[in-house]
Amino acid sequence: MSTGHGAPADILLSAIAEHAKDGPMQQLLRLAVGRETLVIPIEVVREILEVGRMTPLPQTPPFVRGVMNLRGAVVPVVDLGARFGLGLTELGRRTAIIVVEAKGDEDYDRLIAGVLVDAVYEVLEVDSKRIEAAPNLGVAIAPEFLAGMVNVRGSYAALLNLDQVLSPAALSALMAAPQPA
């Protein structure tokens, strides 16, 4: 006689089979840049700092806020809002610098940089199979800077491709362009 409920072993096997469809879990740091909710892979994050003293660099684009001293190393600070054309980030109580490591180029294997953001919220664990392709429309950030979209509590967050955002070749080209006086 069946009661309509599966045996505990059947329920367990069903749960295991359902979980097997999932991909590997990926940890993402959720942050804000302007009105945009973004995520970056936690493995690229070296540390998260309060905004401290930055030394401005002359004749650089507005998105280069300057350099900072990180335990004796000079680290450039890139304002993500300005880099994405959303305007300069206003320094406030929640503003932070996330020190990240991105791919380098033929001269440098890795690029260490600080990225200035409006706020840092939390670390999320996301099934990598649930990361969706980024749409070409409806996102304020250029498609080449996006690796995908992630559903976070019924709303979407853009997954940044920091290797593109901080590409040494692209940043060098932008820095070499004439700057307004």
From TrEMBL:
<dbReference type="GO" id="GO:0006935">
    <property type="term" value="P:chemotaxis"/>
</dbReference>
<dbReference type="InterPro" id="IPR036061">
    <property type="entry name" value="CheW-like_dom_sf"/>
</dbReference>
<dbReference type="InterPro" id="IPR039315">
    <property type="entry name" value="CheW"/>
</dbReference>
<feature type="domain" description="CheW-like">
    <location>
        <begin position="25"/>
        <end position="171"/>
    </location>
</feature>
<dbReference type="Pfam" id="PF01584">
    <property type="entry name" value="CheW"/>
</dbReference>
<dbReference type="GO" id="GO:0005829">
    <property type="term" value="C:cytosol"/>
</dbReference>
<dbReference type="GO" id="GO:0007165">
    <property type="term" value="P:signal transduction"/>
</dbReference>
<protein>
    <submittedName>
        <fullName>Purine-binding chemotaxis protein CheW</fullName>
    </submittedName>
</protein>
<dbReference type="InterPro" id="IPR002545">
    <property type="entry name" value="CheW-lke_dom"/>
</dbReference>
